[in-house]
Each structure stands twice: as structure tokens, then as C-alpha cells.
Fold this sequence. Notes:
The structure holds 2 protein chains of 2 kinds.
Chain A: H1 3-27, H2 29-53, H3 57-60, H4 62-69, H5 75-103, H6 111-114, H7 120-148, H8 161-185, H9 193-204, H10 219-224, H11 229-241, H12 250-276
Helix pairs in contact in A: 1-7, 2-5, 2-7, 4-5, 5-7, 5-8, 5-11, 7-8, 7-12, 8-11, 8-12, 11-12
Chain B: E1 4-15, E2 21-32, E3 36-40, H1 47-54, E4 62-67, E5 70-71, H2 76-79, E6 83-86, H3 98-108, H4 113-126, H5 142-153, E7 160-164, H6 172-187, E8 191-196, H7 199-205, E9 208-213, E10 216-221, H8 223-228, E11 234-240, H9 246-254, E12 259-265, E13 268-273, H10 279-288, E14 292-298, H11 302-310
Parallel strand pairs in B: 3-8, 3-9, 6-7, 7-8
Antiparallel strand pairs in B: 1-2, 1-4, 4-5, 9-10, 11-13, 11-14, 12-13
Amino acid sequence: MKSEQRWGIYSRAFLGLMRRDLRVLSRELVPFLVRVAMNPLLFLFVFTYVMPHMSGGAKMSPVAGMAAAGGGGGFGTVLLPGLMAVAIMFSGIAAVALPLAQEFGITREIDDRVMCPLPIAAVAMEKIVFSAIQSVIAAALVFPLAYYVPSTPVLAHVSSWWLLIAVLVLASLVAGALGLTIGTSVQPKQIGLIFGVVVVPITFLGCVYYPWAALGHIRWLQWGVLVNPIVYMSEGLRAALTPSMGHMPEALILAMLVFFLVLLTWVGMKGFARRVLS
Amino acid sequence: MSETIVAITGLRKVYGGKNPVTAVDGIDLRVPAGTIYGLLGPNGAGKTTTISIATTRAIPTAGSVRIAGVDVVAQPALARQSIGVVPQYNTLDRSCTVAENIYFHCRYFGMNKGEAEGRTARLLEQFRLSDRAKAYPQALSGGLAQRLQIARAIAHKPKVLFLDEPSAGLDPQSRIAMWDAVQALRGEGITVVLTTHYMEEADELCDRLAIIDHGKILIEDTPAALKASVGGDKIYDLRMRDADAREKLEERLRAVEGVTGVEAIPGGIRVLARAQDGLLARVVMTANECGLQDVTTTEPSLETVFIRMTGRELRE
Lengths: 278, 316
């Protein structure tokens, strides 16, 4: 068979899988929007609206003081990129890991999609790509929230659209690959544990609520969090959106996102093949 | 013989681990195009593993499977174009409706929107699922879910449909409806390979059969030829009062015209005979002199074939 013919078959199958996922998502649009918006909405509401209105609220949030020192804007400016990173990561987990746990479970409903004329690695890749699309939407939803909710305006400034797009796309793909890795390596009945064991730690230690540079006084932690891919998502978005806040070098951020994308995709695809083939 | 559509050669599958299990132990098989081909054997015989390998969902330890000339191990993605699968368990997409299960399956296999919609409508009609088109799979009974799985599996017009234990868990009525649906596929030129441990199903449905046990094919032929291999058209099982008379009786029975074989069974003697008027009476009269208690007459079944090959019953 000619290779163009083969690619024709593969690409139609790939698009078919995307269409199926899109249909399923479109039916659950409202729950999807609620899911992605709730976390950033409440975070912004409590930390950038409620607390500043409390007496002494600013003192309760040490980062706010630092944010002010670091170039203006309130805690909202620190949170915007961080909350986008969390939204991206959450979407990866919700779009890939949780459905996979069900599809690999007793129902085995992934079987029909695995049996389509496409290499198994590409079926896994479709999961990552579709999840990345959801991540981009989720990240975009944080913008209007960050504009309307905080009492002090958020200082966002896009110096390079290319950097923003590169970070957004890479971070979204990394989140999908992370979801694939988790979804294929965890037993379906243990998927509930994932939030406690993986999602919460990588969020809190992901430079979401503080810039990486702010960890300078706790050296061991500053080095320790470097194994966490969320750090590079947060820092990358910080570099692209709120450059006045201190951030890691841009080239390093992009390199590390690519590194995690390759690593997690590889592990996730291995896991996927192991789960569908015997 | 017509062309071979499924060619299995020297197939072996060993599941590793602490206690390696040889699930398939050197299977060679040729399935002629256009037939309904059965793999009959007890649970754990290696039928499902054989099907899993043929449908690209398991990797063989050794040997090869070619479907319509495509090697399923070397080119799994392309081989899947020729394969339809209905696994033992319900794998319907629970996030999609009945119609969408078929529609998206068509899209995976490259049909455009119009073709996929047309195909979906035709299949829903053919499998009498049109009125449930908008239902979700969770709402279907076992029989309907099974029909939908078959409809979905053939939606991309595969050359071969693999059915793994298609009647497991179906009520008798649904089972007969499923048999009808499978027989109708013959008219569409689809070759069917099915596994079963129900001999009635194998007998009723299949053009050819391979009897499998412990990962090996014991015998392969048409159901009629397999049954004929037992060596008689009728089986008379004679239950005898005392064991001593048996040997003498065996000799005397062998001498009766029309008797093709005599063998000892627990508690009595089995007589294999041609279907012939008056023969039963002669056998009974002869046996009566040696203390006949009871006689049962049967025709050779695949069960008889299996017991003769393995010394065990099929459903142990």
C-alpha cells in the first residue's frame, strides 16, 4: 500500500476519534465549563476580592506584598498565570485520566476505538491532542475571571505572542500527556486517590501561588520543585503574561516543557499499549 | 476449496510471569472465505486468545496470522480494516447513543458524513434497532446490546467478523435472533469466525469447526463429518445389571448386522450402529439375555466427538 494511502486512512481515523470526543464534550458543555471555571473563580474571589476587603487581609497574604514590590499589581497578577496553569493541568487530568480509568475498567469501552485503523500510539496521541484543546479553552476562561473578579486590577502584558502561544500549546500538551500517564498507570478503582496523591501536591508545589524566584530563601524546595512539570507551566505563563513578575529564563522554560512532553508522552503511550495489548 | 481468508500458522502464545501459561500451543488454521467457522472448546482452551491475536489485541509468542493477506502483527492498523470484532463483554461506547456508536465507528473507518449516516440508518433498520437509535447503551437489554455490537462490528464492511462467545449471557430467544443475524451475514459475503462452548451453537451455525483443547486443535472438519467420525448414525447406551456378562455380550453385539462399533462405558455398553429398521429390537433382544436394565438412544453429537477426543465432557 502506498504511504499516501496509508496516511489517508490514518488521518481519517484520527479525525473520526476527534469528532467523537467533540460530540461527547459538546453534550457536556455546561458541566465542562463549570468544572474548569470553578477553581480559578473561587481562588480569585477569595484571595483577590474577599481578603483585600478584610482588615489586614494584605498581611495575611505575604505574596501580595511581594507582588507589589515586584512591579505593581496585586496578588491577582501572581495568580493569573498560576491559575491558568492549574486550569490546564486539571483539564488534562479530567479529559484523559478520569475517562481512561472508566474506559479501561470493567466496561472496556475503549476497545472499539483501539480497533480503528490507526496505530495504537496514535489513538493515545488523539487523547493528548483533544485534551490539549480543552486545556487551551480552560486557560482562556481564566482571563475574563481575572479581569472582573479582583479588586486590584491584574497587570497583564503580552510582550511576545509567540512565547504565549508556544507556552500555552506546550503546557496543554504536557497536561494531556500527564493525564495519559496517570490514566494508564493507575488502577481504575484507585483513580479517586489521584487527587490527593498527585493533583494537590503538584498544584501546591507548582509555583502556582508564588513565583519560583520567591522560593529563593528555601533553597532545597526551590531545587526540589524543578521535577514538577507544573512549575514550568506557571513560570512560562508568567514570562508570557506578567513579565514584570520575576520568572525563569524563557529558553529554559520551553526546553523543560518539551522535555516533560517527550517524557510523559513516552511513558503514557507505553502504559496505553500495555493496557490495550496483552 | 475457495480462497483462504484467515491463515493461522504455528501460532503460540505464552503468558509470562511467575507461572507461565501456554494459552495457545501451535495452532494452524485455514478459514475459507464466505464460511461460518467455529472454534469449539471448553473455557480456557485458548479460543479467546487465538481470536485476540487474530484481531490485533494480543501479540503472539510465535507464529503468524494473516487476514486477507495482511500480517496482523506486522501491520495491525491496516489489518483492522478487514476485521470486525464482537468481544465477549459489552464494549459499547456509553458516552454515545446507539446510532452514534455505529456512526462514529463508520467515521473511524474513513466514511464521510453522508456515507456514515446512510450506513448507520441501514444497519439500525437491518438489526431492528431504529426505534432505539437515540437511547444510550446502558438502557439496552443484553440481546439488543449484542445486536448493536454486531451491527457496529460490520459497519465498515469487514471481510471477517470475529465473534467471541456470542451467546454467552443471552436468553434463548435472543440467542436464536443472534444466530439468524449471523447467518444473514453470509449473504453479505462476510466470513464469520466464532468461538463457543455450546455444541448446539457450533452444530447449528458453523460450516466448519475446529475443536480446541489445551491450546491445540484436536480435529477440524464440517460438523457432519465430525459427527460421522464417531462411527455410527445411532448410539445405543445399554445399562447392564452385572458386569460379568459384558465381555460376552460385546462379542455377540458385534456380530449383529448393522452394528459398527461396541465399546465399554461406565455401567454398561455403548453400541454404535447404522440407522436401520429393526436394529434396535435386535440389539435389545441380544442384550436382554445378559441382564439389560435400560437403554437410551441418541445420535452422535459434537459432545460425543469431544468426549471421544479428550475423555472429558465439554462443560467440565
